[in-house]
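Hey, sorry to bother you again with one of my protein questions. There's a protein on my desk that I can't quite get my head around. No rush at all, and the record is pasted right below.
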Amino acid sequence: MGGKYCRIQAGPVRKAAETGKFMVKNAFKTSFIKHIIALITIFNVIFIILFVGMTYIITKSNISGDVNSVITDSSQAASDAITDYINNMSDAVRLLAGGTETAKLLNDPSSADPQQVFENMDKILICSGKPAAIWCVSENNGSFFANNGVTGNISPEDYEWFSDAENSSSDSPIVFVMNSSYKRFVDCASQIVIVMPVRLDGEFVGCAGIELSADVISDKISARLRNDGVYSVVYDNAGNVLCTPEKVQELSSLLVSSDYDLTTLAENVENNGSITEFKSGKTTSYAMCQMSFGGLKVLTVFDGKVADGSFTRMYSQQIIILACLFVLELIATLNVIRHEAKDIPEISNSIAEISAGNYNFRINSSSENEIGLIAKSVDDLAQTLQDKNAVINDYMTLDPTTGLQNRYKLYEYIEDLIVSRDESRKRFALLFIDIDNFKWITETLGHRQGDEFLKIFGQRLKKVVSRVFRFSGDEFVILADLNDDFGIIDELIINLRNEFIEPIEILNDKLYVQFSVGISIYPDDDTNPDMLLRDADIAMSRAKEKGKGRTSYYNAALHQTVLSKATIAQKLNKALENNEMFLNFQPIISVQNGDIHGFEVLVRWESEELGSVPPFTFVQIAEETGAIVEIGTWIFETGCRFLKRMNEINPDIIMSINVSPVQLKKKDFLDKVRRTINVFQVNPANIQVEITETSLVEFIDGNNDTIQKLADMGIALALDDFGTGYSSFGYLKDMPIKTLKVDKSFVDEICSKHKDYQITGSIIDMVKNLGIKTVVEGVESIEQYNILAEMKCDYIQGFLMSKPLNASDAMEFVETYEELHKPSRRSLEENSNKLAAERLEREKHQAGQ
């Protein structure tokens, strides 16, 4: 056994120590093995008890299932035997009753020869299993003719079945059970008679019948029963025993030790096919009643001794097998433990040393089995732990992707800076950096190249400043001392941006990088690491809102903006429920002929607590919180309902509805669109869905085919705010875009800036060659209108044509369009002058403030 120990020089003492050590080790070994053996024995006993109990329950359950199956199958077999036999006999009497000779004989017994009928009876007796008797009775004078040539006369009114057959509306056989006073036509042991009316030319002339013996029925039932201990008794509809099984003595012996006889047992068993248990001595037996043909009742009894015998045999066999297996398993386990456990004490002592931190300790084990492998594994573990300690320290502080220090080291560093400045309160700045459009980089080049991009980005930051940390994703943090010189921060940001003048090259692609920066200052903004990071993050978000590549300092107003967003998000949840939202509709007018092309649906929110909330404020928050899904669904449904009314006046009007990318990514979006179209019965061709450039880019290289499926439904797709996002004509060719909406920013100065004029004209010309219609938004002057008409723009939308209208005004706009609202040169000039005056008034008002 390896390791370092204190060596005692005194010989006797050393010998005593070694002896004590040996005794302890052997005592440990002995006690350990005994303990293991005791535990295994206890567990085996427990398992045996559990398995015995489980075996008892399972065997009992199986026997119970077998009992149910046996008695149910036997009862059904007995009932089927009766039904089949009586059906066969019914067919026989039907042959006799349906014979022409029989009908003629019964119609006029004095003038007909009965010999042919007797021959038919003999044939039927031979073919149908030899019933007790077969006969026919004339209604004319009560003459009867039976098998074996027996004839005579009866009084038909003495037989109940005669009047039933005479009055029967059908020619179906009628089954009767004979009582003790029944007068038989032929001397035989019959208990059941099957009667059928005989008719000649539709007139009742008598009856044909066949008599059956209960003993034959008993034989038929016995032939069907396949299990020992099963007995079937047949009762008539009055509850009298009709026939008993062959082994009636065994059944009687079974009932002697119970509280029942054949009559009372049948009375206490329900006729619904359920199984009834009853005690026969100490044994539980089983009974079942089932109704059979002609109101006969079949009582099936299963002797519980047979079931108990099956249970005992099966259970005993399983217990014997189980006991043998457990004995063998116990013997084998004990032998294995005694042989294999001899090295466990040494391994236990060694692991205790390693657990205490002594990674230099090693085990000397001679075992070549699994215990020896464990000993070697423990040695390897000690070596690995020793080697990994340094790696763990690095991992806890370094980011594996960029090699920069990570957020844990960042928190530690900030706390150290704060502690070192407690008294002096010298300032330092925290710069929160977020790469602009990094998601586009990963979606275009892949995540592996995205990681490579982050690595190069971090290395360039490191060239400018030493204290750089990777926070998460595409976010980095820089710490910088500034004392009272804020110019240091401005100079640092300039140097950082200059470092990225040259593009980052990934896979031969040159990527020009922009990033947004948010800055918080200690102790001006906060004195807590989490709060400083939060403040810088808020400032960074504000920088992104201003545009790409911007810098923003944190202040209390920004914090209030975040709180305002939280308030708006909270109120949004109840806005629809409180009917605070409504829709306006802004006309889209054809430039060429002045006709109404359609309306754009614009959502408005008038909050009871917040007042009028602009769409550009609450729509963004609704997208961030997911509330846009419910709001967007309401907008689409309400827009389609209004479109239905519009199309009743003008079937060519379209409704242009904005859809958020959050909605497009939902799996049930298309189902909701289809359901809305079906509910309101609108033409999909009159619906136009507006999507932004940003959301379109997310679908170009992805697997989401929602946009294509919308187009396949016949819905037109419009690209909104073209020119404010990625502005690539490539995806106009690849995506099913029908309409392009040029952003208002190009139109505002189209009359004064040549570049805006050229860009707008180029866009209109190029998309026209692609077969795409153009809508220019924000048209407010006659000069803008004239230029767009000259450029052959398809449609315009703006205050020059009409401001957004509520639902009732929009309906009135359509109904009276030709008379009152269709643009003319004069009306356009008047509107243009009016809008110009309103702009001038607003500018004066703002200047006065």
In short: Residues 1-29 have pLDDT under 50 and may be disordered.
